[in-house]
Design goal:
327 residues, mainly alpha, Peroxidase, domain 1, Peroxidase, domain 2, two-stranded antiparallel sheet, 14 helices, 2% strand, globular, binds protoporphyrin IX containing FE
C-alpha cells in the first residue's frame, strides 16, 4: 500500500529518516534487476547447492585433481568476458574455433563434473540454473571441501551465447614478466595485491607441465633455485610432458605456501618467480607468506570479485540446457 505523506511540515531530521525508511522498504521488497543474489534459487531450485556440493564431493573422492581443474577453469572463464560458461561451449557460434580450443585452455579439465551437475539439475528444475553459476559454485565447493578457504558465491549469472577464442589466447602466459601480468590484471580492475593473491592461491595447488619450464631448466635460470632445478630436471628428462606440482610442499592444499616458495626462488613458472623481483608485487609476496589467515581472508575477497566480474544477468544471455551447447 502506498500512503501519501505531506512532508512539508517535517523537520530535516524527520525527512531524512523518512527517506531512509522508504529506501530500506523498497530495497527489501524488490530484487534489484541484474544483481547477483545469494537467494536467487531459493524458490526456483532449492536443492541447487546440495546437488552441487554432493556431486563435487563424489568426484573429489575419485579424483582430487578436480579441485585445481575447476579453479583454473573459473579463472579462464571469468577473465575472458566474465564468468559466463564460455569455455564450456564446444562451438563459438561464429567462424572462430571455440574458446575451449585456445592454447591456454587445452589443459583445462573438469568438464564432466559440470555436465554431471547440469544433468541432475535439469532433471529437477529444468532451464533454471546457469552453467556459469554451476561453475562458480562447484569451484568454490571443490576448494573448500579440500580444506581450502571458503568464499561466498552469489547467484543469478546467465550463460553466454558465444566464446572469444582470440581473447582466451591472450590469457596471462607463464613466460610473462611482471609488467605484462600487471597490465592484464589492471585492465580487469585488479590491484597488484589482488593479482598476487589470485595467482598465489591458484598456484598453491594443481600442476604445470614440463614444456612450460623446459627453457628455465635447459639454460639455467638464475631466478630459479639451483637445487629445485636439479630436482625437476630428471623428471622432465624422463618424460618431457610430465606434470609437476605447482607447490611441492603442500601440493593438494590451497594455502599460503606459494608465497614462501616464491621467496625461496621455487616458483614454477617465470610468471610466478617474477613477482618476487618487482616492487609492485613483492610486498604482497612477503605479506601473505607471513600470514595464512590474512591470505585466506583476502584470497576469498579477490576470488569472489573475480567470479562477479562483468557477468551477464537479468535478461542477458540465456540459461543453457546443455553446458557445451549455446541456446
Ligand atoms: C597470473 C597469471 C597466471 C598464469 C600465467 C597462469 C598460468 C598457468 C599455467 C601455464 C598453468 C599450468 C597448465 C598446465 O601445464 O596444464 C597453470 C595452472 C594452474 N593455474 Fe594458473 N596462471 C595464472 C593465474 C592463475 C589464477 C589467477 C588462478 C586461479 C585463481 C590460477 C589457477 C591455476 C590452477 C588451479 C592451476 C593448476 C591446474 C591443474 O592442476 O589442472 N592461475 N596456470
Amino acid at each position: 500500500m502506498i500512503s501519501i505523506v505531506n512532508i512539508q511540515g517535517l523537520s530535516m531530521g524527520a525527512k531524512f529518516l523518512l527517506v531512509l525508511v522508504v529506501v530500506a522498504t523498497v530495497s527489501s521488497n524488490c530484487r534489484v534487476q541484474g544483481a547477483l543474489d545469494r537467494g536467487f534459487y531459493d524458490d526456483s531450485c532449492p536443492p541447487f547447492e546440495v546437488i552441487v556440493s554432493g556431486t563435487v564431493q563424489s568426484f573429489l573422492d575419485r579424483d582430487p585433481s578436480v579441485a585445481p581443474g575447476l579453479l583454473r577453469m573459473l579463472f579462464h572463464d571469468a577473465f575472458v568476458g566474465g564468468l559466463d560458461g564460455s569455455p564450456l561451449l564446444n562451438s563459438s557460434g561464429g567462424s572462430d574455433p571455440p574458446e575451449r580450443l585456445a592454447t591456454p585452455n587445452l589443459s583445462l579439465h573438469g568438464f564432466d563434473l559440470i555436465d554431471a551437475i547440469k544433468s541432475k539439475l535439469e532433471g529437477i528444475c529444468p532451464g533454471i540454473v546457469s552453467c556459469a553459476d554451476i561453475l562458480a559454485t562447484a569451484a568454490r565447493d571443490a576448494i573448500t571441501l579440500t580444506n581450502g578457504p571458503f568464499w561466498r558465491v552469489k547467484f543469478g549469472r546467465r550463460d553466454g551465447r558465444s566464446s572469444n577464442f582470440n581473447e582466451a589466447n591472450h590469457l596471462p602466459s607463464p613466460f610473462e614478466d611482471a609488467n605484462g601480468l600487471l597490465a592484464k590484471f589492471a585492465a580487469k580492475g585488479f590491484t597488484a595485491e589482488e593479482m598476487v593473491l589470485l595467482q598465489g592461491g591458484g598456484h598453491s595447488i594443481g600442476v604445470g607441465h614440463c614444456p612450460l619450464i623446459a627453457s628455465r631448466l635447459s639454460n639455467p635460470d638464475p631466478t630459479l633455485d639451483p637445487s629445485y632445478a636439479a630436482q625437476l630436471r630428471p623428471i622432465c628428462s624422463a618424460n618431457a610432458n610430465a606434470a609437476l606440482p605447482n607447490d611441492p610442499v603442500t601440493p593438494p592444499l590451497l594455502d599460503n605456501q606459494y608465497f614462501a616458495n616464491v621467496q625461496a626462488r621455487k616458483g614454477l613458472f617465470t610468471s610466478d618467480q617474477e613477482l618476487l623481483f618487482d616492487g609492485r608485487t613483492k610486498p604482497a609476496i612477503d605479506k601473505y607468506a607471513a600470514s595464512s589467515s590474512a591470505f585466506a581472508r583476502d584470497f576469498s575477497k579477490a576470488i569472489q570479485k573475480l567470479s562477479e566480474l562483468g557477468v551477464l544477468t537479468g535478461s542477458q544471455g540465456s540459461v543453457r540446457k546443455i553446458c557445451a551447447i549455446a541456446n
